[in-house]
Amino acid sequence: MQIQVVKSKIHRVSVTQADLNYIGSITIDEDLMDASNIIEGEKVQIVNINNGERLETYAIKGIRGSGEVCLNGPAARKVAVGDIVIIISYALMDFEEAKSFKPALIFPDETVNKLK
To answer: Which residues are known to be catalytic?
Structure first.
């Protein structure tokens, strides 16, 4: 049996930009992506602390060290600049493997979106 478990989580970062006219996705500072083990093109869930919205999209690399967290395309309608979001990715794995799997969880400074 396989189950879906949390693989990566960026806990509480501030939305720095919302770009309705971009094709789609979420742009994330590459430092945050590396630290959380999220790769470009990976499906992610965005949970907005401010308004309760939940959505799925895919990650693209932002400028390393910029603190950038930008919701693009239709997702831009689900956030406001300054909203606090949680970014989560999941993995499908064997039930026994999942019992010992340790996800990459990071807790950046939400005021600047940088690792503490």
So the answer is: 25, 58
